[in-house]
Design goal:
57% helix, mainly alpha
């Protein structure tokens, strides 16, 4: 599941629960997947914006950045 908390939905007692126990609903899993993809996109854009000095500080090269930002969003 996602690391995001949905405060507006957290107070609903049965949101995301099926009648078969504690299984998470498909819409909630899709929403979590969407949030994860958006977070990955945000992180990759921030990584792409770093200059050479900053990349050297964190120990990666521009080639590493290019490889990361060219990956599909689901990986």
């Amino acid at each position: 599941m996602s690391r995001y908390k949905l405060p507006a939905l957290a107070d609903l007692p049965h949101f995301g629960r099926s009648s078969h126990g504690g299984a998470t609903s498909l819409p909630r899993r899709l929403l979590a997947f969407l949030f994860d993809c958006l977070e990955i996109r945000r992180q990759r854009r921030a990584l792409e914006a770093l200059d050479e000095r900053m990349l050297k500080d964190i120990g990666i090269s521009r080639c590493d950045v290019e490889a990361e930002i060219s990956r599909p969003f689901w990986r």
